[in-house]
Structures are given as structure tokens and as C-alpha cells.
Amino acid sequence: MGDLNSNLMALSSYALDSTKKEDLLDQYLQETLSQMMDEYHKNQTPIDIDFRKLIHWLRAGDQLTHQIHPYPAKLLPHIAYFFLKAHKNLTQKLVLDPFCGSGTVALEASIHGFLPLVADANPLALLLTKVKTTPYCIEKLIRIKEKISYKYIRYKVAPTIDIVNPDLWYLPEHKKRLEILLRTIEEVVDQEEKAFFKICFSSLTKKVSFADPAISVPVRLKTKEKFSPTINARINKRLDWIKSANIIQEFNIIVDANIERVIETNNKYPNRFTAKQVGIDARSLFTNPNGSIPMPDNSVPLVITSPPYGSAQKYVRASSLSLNWLELASPKELRSLEEKSIGREHLKKTPLCLEESNLPQDYVQLLKKIALKNEVRAQITQKYLIEMSQVVDEISRVTAPNGRVIFVLGNNQVCGETLRNDRFIIECFQKHHLKLKLILIDDIKSRGLMTKRNRTASVISRETVLVFEK
């Protein structure tokens, strides 16, 4: 990138040391984005970038309310930060993320003066995003915490919560104590505060379970002969801790940590906006709670989103314990919830009708190659592409004239065949006459996408950031 790299490093250093107003940083980031787009327009070549180095003053670890709850494959906050700061001069401060996930874009939008509009098929994602972006009254949270602890000691029974394979994941006594704790939380009158304590409770259900904390989907933690003595000793130590864990004590530790995160965020950004839900399906965005009024055409000036990647992550399974405990989806409802999610793992087997899919011929031929090796994977991939094209239809509809869409995605392999998701999305947006202004390539370092989801999938090690303009 030549001079651009030098400018970026100079910008980063300046941003750290300068005492001038924040709008100077916004201006420099706007100029940086403009330089990138000029370079891309000139060379028509994707630009390699390291967002961590570009925005190196932003901590990648625990900051604000970003780490209030675990969630798989979180978007790097630096990406959202960069594009939001580079668009701070927008007259209408709205940003849409139709795949909000853990709420990374929503929180960054909220603290930078944008109203976040969010959608997601996973109800846990919507709950988490709301909690992350809500400027809670700290005194109220502390009072409720004390009341929950008081009731927890007094209550002896609670309604049974239906969990997938409860004996596999919990000691019977732990499950009983968790049910009593949930009973006390359900009695919280204020819905916003109840949501906060439910998210804390959700974190606890993972922490005191026998699920391996290093794996996003629930996998029983146990020693194995192939592991080294050191690793097995560490696992046994973890298992012993789980068996002796004090439920209310661990809950209060999580609550206190999350209250500290809210305090930090409130102190730095007291006027941030709480995210507004605009859908449960990225293909159908609305403006009212029951979903009967579509979001107006040409109404959103900025879209920043990262959709599920084909063969990358089992989002519903990864959050299955939380979905069960919070009664957002019963064990029997998990499959139907997955079926509503784009990028699903399972699909009812039906005849493969490629010629009727309206997909570009290059992708029809690719699916035929996949079908020769595994017809089910071909069906799942076809469904993913069709649904992503519908997502692009809806995003294109609601994006305002001159508005921009930032799309973060990855390419992968299915049965040894390369699936160019980036090219497919580019073709879809160009059908709606959105112009491709920039392609950035960044290496994935810690998004939980490095592990193969199944034996027919591949490792995803690079992310593509596409910038379109209407």
C-alpha cells in the first residue's frame, strides 16, 4: 500500500498522543478510507490490511461491555470502530446490522452516536445486544442483585427447566440451585434489568456446566489418554472446581464484573443509544414490534454486518444451553430455530433442483461438483446462497441513496471445492446497482472460525471486507 501504510501508522500514533478534539480523528479516518477507495479504484486489487494495527489504540480484549457474555465468532470491534468513525459526518445517525450476533457493531455504533438497528434469528443474540447497549442505572442493578441473593437463600424449590441432556452437563444439585436462582431473576419486575441478570445467569450456566470452556459448542470436558499429563491434570482441576462451585457466589462474581463493565461504559459514553430491534430475519426487516410494517425503502445510510459463513459456526448449537435455560427455545424447538437461521447445518433432504435456483451459472456448476461428492452438502450450500441473495435484496432495498454497505465475510471450501462467497455477494449487490468501492483482506486471528465445523468443510483463515455504495 506504499504511502498509505505510512499514513496509517502516522495516524495511529497521532490518535494516541493527540489532545485535540475527537473530530480530528474522525476526519483522519475518513481520509484514510477515502485513500483506500482511491487506491482500489486505481488498481482494482484487494488491499491487505491489519485492523488491529490500524486501530491499535483500541484494546482487543475486555473493554466496555463487549465481553459481558461469551459468544462464538465475534466480529473484531476494530472493524466496526473504523467504519463508524469514518462515517461520523452522516446527517442521519443510523446503522443497521441485520446479523447482530453478540452486538459488536451495535455497541460500537451506540457509543459513537449512532442508533443501532439490529436483527438476528437467534433470540439470545437479540437479548445480548440489548443488554450490551443499555445504559443501566448502577444503583438499581445493585439493589436488584441484593434482592436476588436474599430470595435465593430463602427459596427451596423452583420450576424445573427443560435442558438438553441435563445429566450430561450438570450435577443434579447444581441444576436445582440454578433453577432456584432463575426463579428469583424471573421475579424481577423491570424488564430491562431482568434482561441484564438473565445474561449474567446465562454466563453462569456455561461456567458451572461440564462443557469444555475452550469449545464454543457444548462438548463434555473429560480427560483422554492422548492428552499429556499436564493437560489431563488441568482438566481434572477444572472438573473438581465445577463439583465444588457455589452457585450464588459464582453468579455474584459474574454480576459484579458486568456491573463494572457497565460503569466503565456509562462513564465514557453516558448518552449512548440502546439498540432497536428491526427483525428476526435479515430477509425481512420491519419497524414495529409485530413485524407488520416493513422498514421503509431507502431509509438506512449505513449498513455494517457480518453474516454467518457457510461451514463456519454452529450458532444455535453453541448457544443451546442458554436458549434452554432462558426458555428462549426448548430442547424440542432448537431444530426449528436452526431451520430459521441462515447458514444452517441441517436440511431436510429433497431433490436437488439446481436449474430452478436462479443462481449464477458458475455457482450452479460448482454445486454440481459438490453434489457428486455429497448431495446433502450441495443442498445446504445451495440454500445458503439463495438465502444470502435474498438478504442482499432486502439490504439493497433499505439502503439510502449514496448510502454504504460494509459486508464482512469469508470464503471456504465445501467437499474440496472452493466457495467464493465474496464474488457471489458482489454479483448480488451489483444486480441492484450498488457499486463496489473497496475490497479489504484481513487475517482472522481469534474469531472462532479456525476450526472445521465438519469433515466436508475447511478452515477459514482470512476475512474479506466489501464496501458498496448505492
TrEMBL record:
Residues 71-112 form the Ribosomal RNA large subunit methyltransferase K/L-like methyltransferase domain. Pfam families: UPF0020. It catalyses: a 2'-deoxycytidine in DNA + S-adenosyl-L-methionine = an N(4)-methyl-2'-deoxycytidine in DNA + S-adenosyl-L-homocysteine + H(+). InterPro entries: MeTrfase_CN4_CS, RlmKL-like_Mtase, RlmKL-like_Mtase_CS, SAM-dependent_MTases_sf. Its EC number is 2.1.1.113. It comes from the Bacteria. GO terms for biological process: DNA restriction-modification system; methylation. It is an enzyme of class 2 (transferase). PROSITE patterns: N4_MTASE, UPF0020. Keywords: Methyltransferase, Restriction system, S-adenosyl-L-methionine, Transferase. GO terms for molecular function: DNA binding; site-specific DNA-methyltransferase (cytosine-N4-specific) activity. Coiled coil: none annotated. Belongs to the N(4)/N(6)-methyltransferase family. N(4) subfamily. This is site-specific DNA-methyltransferase (cytosine-N(4)-specific). It comes from Acinetobacter tjernbergiae DSM 14971 = CIP 107465. The lineage of its organism: Bacteria, Pseudomonadati, Pseudomonadota, Gammaproteobacteria, Moraxellales.
